[in-house]
Fold:
Amino acid sequence: MLRVILHVDMDAFFASVEQNDDPALRECPVLVGGTPPRGVVAAASYEARRFGVRSAMPMIEACRLCPNAVVVAPRLARYREVSQQIFEIFREFTPDVEGLSLDEAFLDVTASQRLFGGGEAIARTLKELIREHTGLTASAGVAPSKFVAKLASDLEKPDGLVVIPAAEVRSRLAPLPVERMWGVGPVAARKLRSAGIRTLGAIQRADPEQLGQLLGTYGAKVFALASGTDPRPVCPRQQSKSVGSEETLMHDIYSGEEVRLVLLSQAVQVARRLVLEDLSASVVLVKIKYADFQQRTRQKQLEVPVRDAVSIHEACGALLSKFPSFNQGVRLVGVSTAGLSLGPPPPQLFPDCRGERREALQRTLTELEARVGKDALVPASLLARKQQQAEESSRS
Structure:
């Protein structure tokens, strides 16, 4: 039996959530991300994309291209909340859901067709339910493989639905540029184009040996994918390998105390994500990028797993002494956790009452933030920094 794979991708997800939550932003160009001059665009609404704005673009450049854009700070807790609603809808149709990010997933609905109809019918119903429950639009691709389904979902965005039957795979892929090929970045694309290979159809007709000379061992994979051959199964979401947060600072900082304060802000965000994903961490890593763009990382193996901000921040503080001096200026600070395990920290032979209280407090705070918003609950020591960021944002 031919597989039926869906790729569902939310349209401008972060920006669409902001527009849906705030009617004043609807039909306005919206940029989600950090403020200029050092912030980057995490998401751009379709109104902003018409001006040439795209994700990962420096915010200062995006605001130059689209001077009327409304810049909104990311609300990751809110995006995860909406994402959870969407994935719950997916799982009503199949247990075989492979999440690629908060806003896109593969679904294998081969065995679901007897209950819910063919792939196109399932995709259409999913889109309707997503709109009904979240107010957002999604684009979907339906195909016999993951690669083709993902390509299809991008062909008629936003709010698109494209079905590519097995018999039409080669012909539908043929005119697409090589840049649409999964895994072909700018360097590989230049190599292919310099050899006269500009479309997926040209890859289909190419000599596999030539592709090997151009792309190495990946050449055989590209040849197979261009013809729609992709046997990869849909794998239900695997546990995260790491959870982290980093911030490019609006101004360089020069002291350990300033770095420590930024680390606290990030420890709060990391702890929130760990609780939301029901994970605990046994490794804490701190990343520092200096003003001259040199980067250093240091990590600490914890005696017991944790998932509260206080414990994570304490581990970060212990790592600071292992970095060179900060007096040359620091432009980026990051915290990440690894060695992840499902569930809360396991019970210890000799219980640590302080750690248990911290974990319980973190869980309570995260539950409160889900109801009142994460910006409503801020450690007292971060209030001055939050106020300064708000003032700088209003001036920019």
